[in-house]
Structure formats: structure tokens, C-alpha cells
Amino acid sequence: RPGAQEWVPPDPSLDDLRAAAPGCRGCELYRDATQVVFSTGPARARIMLVGEQPGDREDREGEPFVGPAGMLLGRALDAAGIRREDAYLTNAVKHFRFEQRGKRRIHAKPSVGHVVACHPWLEAEFEVVRPRVVVCLGATAARAVLGGEVRIADVRGKLMTEGRGGTALPAPAIVTEHPSAVLRVREAPARDAAFERLVDDLAAAAEVAR
Ligand code: URA
Ligand code: SF4
After folding, report:
1. In this predicted model, what pLDDT tens digit does every residue of 75-122 receive, in sequence order?
2. What CATH number should be reported for the domain holding residue 98?
3. What is the DSSP letter of 4?
4. Which of 34, 65, 118, 137 for a ligand 1 pocket mutation test, highest count of atoms within 8 Å of Cβ?
5. pTM, two decimal places
6. N or C: less crowded end of the chain, CB within 10 Å?
7. Total count of domains within the chain
């Protein structure tokens, strides 16, 4: 059976998970990536943020949210009154998926199959961290956490207490835009507005986590 399950240690601590993740062969993405990018943040975090997958910089450095989207997320967390080092930051998929174009590596969206294959890690993280609130950054994270397709515009900023089809969630969840979507807005005023909406959603999550 494909998927990460057989690489997830039983009854793990966060350190156990971080130690085991580099060995994962739950899907083919490990083959072309530089390394696994697991998570940062304390095991006792009240707020957990879930992104899509590591980007180019994250893949090279082995840490989530250290590239341009991560910098923007850091500013948004700041503006929302959340200390970055108090938050648990992770991704729906733990290896970078990309297409090679000459010397450049172009981000490729992970497929539903990759999200499903990697889900045992995310589930184990929920069990270890037991956050009070989960922030889903973008549609891929929302799918991973809520267990199905959502349109960001329909659900963003709302406190979700159950997943698709009424499934139980590991914690109440708030869906918001991915920081890279904010970066892609071309006009400065619209980009600033998108940034403020991200900050508002993070502030709403912080309120739940208090
Ligand atoms: N985008 C993500 O979703 N996660 C990262 O770690 C970096 C960029
Ligand atoms: Fe394992 Fe996830 Fe990496 Fe696939 S992306 S090899 S499931 S850690």
C-alpha cells in the first residue's frame, strides 16, 4: 500500500517524527527533492499552520517557510500578534515537487495522491501537538485538513468545526489564502488588501488559540 504510514513510528514524540521523516518513501517525491522538510515549532504549540509543500528555498535549507512566502507569512504573523516561534509550522506534503526547466526548478502543485500519501505524517503531528486551532494556508492544506475539496472564497476566515461530510477534525480549523497567493497579486493596493485579509484570518485563529 502506498503512503507514509509504514514510516511513521508508533506512539511517537515530535523528535521521533522528525528523526523518521527523512526515511520516508511513501511516494516518489523524495527521489528528486534534496531532503525532507518536516516542521518547525514547539510540540506544545497552541496554533498550527499548515502550508502546501516546501518551496525551492525550503528544499535546500530543510526548513519550512524560509523563502519569500515564508517571509510574508512571518510579517503577517507579526501583524496578527503571533510570535512565529510559538507557532507550529508544517506542510501538507513534506517533499518539494517541481519541474526542472534548464537550471531552474519550477514549483509544481502536489497531486491529491501526494497529499493522501503524506497524510499519515500530518495526522501524527496533530496527535503530538494537539493544537487548539489549525490554520490551513490555501486549498491544498484545506484539502489535507478538512478531507475534501473546498473553495477558499466560500470558507475563508470561518471557524470550521467539522471536515467534509461531517468528519471529525483534530482541532477547529480556519482556512485562509496561501501567502504565495498574496505575493502574486500584482497591484500594490490589492496586494496590501490581500495581506490584511491574511492578517485578519490569523488574528481570528489567535483568538481561538488563547
Ligand atoms: N510554501 C508552503 O506552503 N510551505 C513552505 O514551507 C514554503 C512555501
Ligand atoms: Fe513521504 Fe510525504 Fe515525502 Fe512522499 S512527500 S516521500 S509521503 S514524506
Report:
1. 999 999 999 999 999 999 999 999 999 999 999 999 999 999 999 999
2. 3.40.470.10
3. S
4. 65
5. 0.97
6. N
7. 1
